[in-house]
Amino acid sequence: MGTDTFFFALGKIVKTHGIRGEVQVYLYSDEGSFLDYKNIFVQGKYGDKVPQRVLKARTKKGKSVILTLEGVVDRTQAGSFVDKEIFLDRAKLSPLAEEEYYWHELEGLAVVSAGGEELGILSDILATGAYDVYVVKGDKGEILVPAVEQMVKEIDLEKGVIKVDLPPGLVEANAL
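Now predict its structure.
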């Protein structure tokens, strides 16, 4: 099937749902257009990626979706998928407009201040409704950075760096 460089993890199947073979998936990021994807890959027995077709998807409270998978018709079959990660082929992602990014492209990037100070690594992104919040973990603890134009000045995927311009005192006040 190739290497993992072509795939990224969408989430993890955490439990069965109902008696008709549906599964509940905890998403690692916002569901966004996830409901539009019909072809996913499920973690196989040996870490391989097994293709699986999604017949139906619907949102659930929080960061979860309920999936109906092709060929899975009862709770017992659905149970065999529990605790397995699901993946998407990066090549199947819709192209984004300039200066728009998928969360998986940003997570793991180094975050530096406009003055060049290393603040840490972007470890998570929180969807708040109004705007996303970047969770940056570094030597000073955890810093929450609103993902707004006034704060995020540059994202360079090739260099693996996000440059932010934080107000004075935000790092010290925000570090946990």
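The mean pLDDT is 85.
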